[in-house]
Write a structure and sequence with these properties.
The chain contains nine helices and 17 strands. It has 330 residues and is an alpha+beta fold. Strands 1-2-6-7-10-15-16-17 form an eight-stranded antiparallel β-sheet. It is an enzyme of class 2 (transferase).
């Protein structure tokens, strides 16, 4: 005999199964996203899998940790303390700073000095970063020594400026954290430094590259990872980060280490796509921006790097690609 209690149990079971079915259908049609602000810009993480609160908190912790390592805007950050200390002082630095400086040194050497993270005083003098009322005289480029384990010695009073690599490093750390926690399908974006991994409900992720000639958000090119599970994407350009001086001269935030002045280039923006590291993508994008068209394409082809250069003139916008860009079927 079926009792009211049995019927209520069956109804509860059916309702429970329906709720599970609705939740399943919802999750397969929607993505989950968290976002915030850091490093003077915005960040977001999007996934087809649910991002639990503890993951959200841990991602914020990663972002804040790197801010306290690499920020020139915080007087108590690790790099600011080093910038403020005497020359020839040997520092024992964090694992994060050691890794950042190691990659920066590698790209500096590889690019024949056209990528340089020791131009912080010049950047401050031009008004693109804080100066803390200090002497802004720049003496020499890239004069620092790294030794294992985690030892750093500066040879000059020049300042580190890690703005061209720190966001990419943070993106890479978040990517690695998500993989460790089985959140394999994700898109991470910190101020335009991006990683796409896996898929969004079985379809490739898509990332639009901003048209430098447009004052609204308008993609000039869309990258997807249909043929590549993982891609890191970094874009560097002067089209929104410049100043006009009283005499009408335009200065940009990217400095040529050879001339110690703002770059002047026909290239409006540079987009690098890397197959393993957002840190390298971030650094290479700045290096290519300094190089200009011919050197950038030649360097990219010689070193098997995917790069897209954007040119804007009166006739419109044109694009130029390295060989690796075509190899990746971007």
């Amino acid at each position: 005999m079926i009792t009211r209690f049995t019927i209520s149990k069956i109804i509860a079971l059916v309702v429970g199964l329906l709720c599970l079915l609705i939740a399943f259908n919802y999750n397969t049609k929607n993505s989950f996203s968290i976002n915030g602000s850091a490093y003077g810009t915005s960040w977001s993480v999007t996934s087809s899998e649910f991002i639990a609160d503890h993951h959200h908190k841990n991602i914020i912790k990663i972002i804040n940790n790197i801010d306290m390592v690499a920020s020139n805007y915080k007087s108590d950050s690790e790099v600011s303390v080093i910038n403020d200390n005497a020359v020839t002082t040997e520092f024992v630095i964090s694992d994060h700073l050691y890794k950042i400086l190691t990659i920066a040194k590698e790209v500096h050497n590889q690019s024949d000095g056209l990528y340089d993270i020791t131009l912080g005083k010049l950047s401050s003098k031009m008004g693109f970063s804080p100066n803390f009322n200090d002497d802004l005289f720049h003496t020499s480029n890239n004069k620092f020594l790294l030794q294992n384990p985690n030892k750093l010695t500066k040879s000059t009073k020049d300042w580190f400026d890690l703005s061209s690599i720190a966001k990419g490093y943070s993106v890479q750390l978040i990517h690695e954290y998500l993989l460790e926690n089985n959140l394999n399908n994700h898109l991470i974006d910190i101020g335009g430094e991006v990683i796409i991994n896996g898929s969004i409900h079985g379809k490739p992720w898509k990332v639009g590259i901003q048209d430098p000639s447009s004052f609204i958000d308008k993609p000039i090119y869309v990258i997807n990872n249909l043929d590549n599970k993982f891609l890191s994407i970094a874009t560097s350009g002067e089209y929104r980060n410049f100043k006009i001086l009283d005499d009408g001269k335009k200065i940009t935030h990217t400095i040529n280490p050879k001339t110690l002045s703002s770059i002047s280039s026909k290239v409006s923006s540079v987009t690098v796509v890397h197959q393993s590291s957002a840190t390298y993508a971030d650094a290479y994008a700045t290096a290519f921006n300094v190089m200009g068209e011919t050197k950038a394409i030649n360097f990219a082809n010689e070193n098997d790097i995917a790069v897209m250069l954007t040119f804007t003139n009166e006739e419109g916008t044109n694009l130029k690609f390295s060989k690796k860009w075509y190899d990746l079927k971007l």
